[in-house]
Design goal:
- With 175 residues, the protein is an alpha+beta fold.
- The protein has 2 domains: 79 residues; 56 residues, no CATH class.
- The protein has 6 helices and 5 strands, in the order E-E-H-H-H-H-H-E-E-H-E.
- The strands form 2 sheets. It has a 3-stranded antiparallel beta sheet, with no helix packed on it.
- Strand 1 and strand 2 form a beta hairpin.
- Helix 2 packs across helix 4 and helix 3 runs antiparallel to helix 4.
């Protein structure tokens, strides 16, 4: 089905989708949507309805869409592009049984982690946290260290050694 809406041809719109677009264009809240009174909870529910009713999609699709929107935001750092990224995050949350408040709480918890980290500025001006690495105590044979690493991880990863006894901590930039 192809529908024409305000001069734009949109393929595959249902009557419900057309109703939502028409009401939004008039500045009205379509039935079941609450957008005129912003707030995280209301916005999260409205985005949830949008990703289920207007542009139905699987639970991983908003994460992929967020990549596209983040690239647009990087190219044009504006409030409108930031809103697109937020809409993707809220859509992902709603399709995965969460809500906007869950994202806020996860962000607050992550900020506590970030505040405890050491940061290093990269050549492009962005910042990356510095990951401490632990090297084995030279007094402990490598074979023992390797087998202890196998017990904990199932494999020994490059540049990662488990140690017995005092260790030297060296900080390296994580990629």
């Amino acid at each position: 089905m192809t529908t024409t809406h305000t001069g734009t041809t949109i393929a595959g719109l249902s009557e419900r989708q057309l109703e939502v677009l028409t009401e939004a264009e008039r500045g009205c809240d379509p039935p079941g949507f609450v957008l005129s009174s912003p707030g995280l909870d209301r916005l999260s529910r409205a985005v949830g309805r949008f990703v289920r009713d207007v542009v139905p999609q699987g639970p991983a699709v908003p994460a992929l869409k967020a990549l596209h929107e983040a690239a647009e935001f990087a190219a044009d750092p504006s409030l409108e592009e930031a809103a697109d990224v937020l809409i993707c995050l809220l859509g992902w949350a709603e399709l995965n049984g969460l809500d906007g408040q869950a994202i806020v709480e996860a962000a607050a918890a992550k900020m506590q982690v970030n505040l405890a980290r050491t940061w290093s500025q990269k050549p492009d001006g962005t910042w990356q946290h510095v990951t401490p690495t632990v090297t084995a105590n030279p007094a402990v044979p490598d074979l023992v260290t390797q087998h202890v690493g196998d017990l904990f991880t199932g494999t020994v990863q490059p540049n990662c050694q488990v140690h017995l006894g005092p260790a030297t901590i060296r900080e390296e930039n994580s990629e």
